[in-house]
TrEMBL record:
It comes from Planococcus halotolerans. Pfam families: EmrE. Keywords: Membrane, Transmembrane, Transmembrane helix. The chain crosses the membrane at residues 31-51, 71-91, 97-120, 132-152, 158-177, 198-222, 228-249, 261-284, 290-308. This is Multidrug resistance efflux transporter family protein.
């Protein structure tokens, strides 16, 4: 039960991303600074965490070996992930972005053939090319149905341009995030833990954020003190606290695929937490019954998808043995 509770708390802190991004957009803050400042602020916190774990030197050692791959996949995994999410905040409420973001489960499944899975057997280890999990995708259709219901209700009040700018960036981010992170896991080959890898990717993505910031200075001017403070909160709550809690929860159940799936399913709570935050602090309109139905369907789809994935993983291990 404890890992589930920790997983729910991580979803709570992850939801701050969507609420605060919506807040910054509502008060005239540019998505350029919402995206850039988060990663600038994350660097010192991540360095402190890795230093406390006495694992800082290997990060720079690994980055020096393959700088090109670090720059490329950090740009994909962090740049093409977070910048589009912040951009979408100008066109959709945070709870809707949080709900649509669950599409990343579908996107991640479609990317499976691009990667190999290491299977441990009594005779050693072997790599197996990933396959698109058909059953998992069927469960993912439930998530897509929920997202469609939420977006359909929202679309009644918006122009086609707003709909596209609110959805397409999230679709790009949903593929970029798992692609960049999985590619970096391949590059590291287990030599770095999650905290080290996130720190390395954050540092490697800094050239993008510096360029984006320079563009922001000449187009929208410097960020306000309020936006800088809220970006700092996003970095602390989502970039540090939520990530640490989620890794803690998954580490506690790493030996059980079913329990791991349950922890992963807790992330669907981001939608409810983001909605509650916007209702309380941003005074948004209460979602319609159709939107509520979509939210419930998304959460149900997340739970079913996680369960099917855990069953499939356990079968794969048994077949390998």
């Amino acid at each position: 039960m404890r890992p589930i509770i920790i997983g729910v708390f991580s979803a709570f802190f992850f939801a701050f991303t969507f609420v605060l991004n919506a807040s910054m957009e509502a008060t005239g803050g540019s998505w350029i600074w919402s995206a850039s400042l988060r990663y600038f602020f994350m660097v010192p916190f991540l360095i402190a965490i890795v230093l406390m774990r006495k694992n800082l030197r290997p990060v720079f050692s690994e980055m020096r070996k393959q700088p090109g791959k670090w720059l490329l996949w950090s740009f994909v995994g962090f740049g093409l992930f977070y910048a589009p999410l912040c951009f979408a905040a100008a066109y959709s409420p945070g709870w809707l972005i949080a709900g649509t973001w669950q599409i990343t489960i579908v996107s991640g499944a479609l990317l499976a053939p691009l990667f190999f899975t290491t299977i441990h057997t009594p005779g050693g280890t072997r790599k197996v090319r990933g396959k698109i999990p058909v059953k998992g995708l069927l469960m993912s259709l439930i998530i897509l149905l929920g997202v469609a219901l939420m977006q359909m209700e929202h679309a009644k009040q918006l122009s086609l341009e707003n709909i596209l700018f609110g959805i397409v960036p999230i679709l790009i981010a949903s593929f970029a995030y798992p692609l960049g992170n999985r590619k970096m896991m391949e590059v590291c080959e287990g030599r770095l833990d999650a905290y080290q890898r996130v720190l390395g990717m954050t540092i490697a993505s800094l050239p993008l954020w510096f360029l984006l910031s320079a563009f922001g200075i000449f187009t929208v001017g410097m960020p306000s003190g309020s936006q800088a403070f809220q970006s700092l909160l996003v970095a602390i709550f989502s970039g540090v606290i939520a990530t640490v809690l989620f890794f803690m929860a998954t580490d506690m159940v790493r030996g059980s695929m079913s329990k791991l799936a349950a922890v992963e399913a807790t992330q669907s709570m981001e939608v409810l937490f983001a909605l509650a935050g916007e209702l309380l602090f941003l005074s948004i309109l209460f979602p319609s019954p159709i939107s509520w139905l979509g939210i419930v369907i998304v959460i149900l789809g997340m739970i079913l998808h996680s369960y099917v994935s855990s069953v499939r993983a356990e079968k794969l291990v048994k077949q390998a043995v």
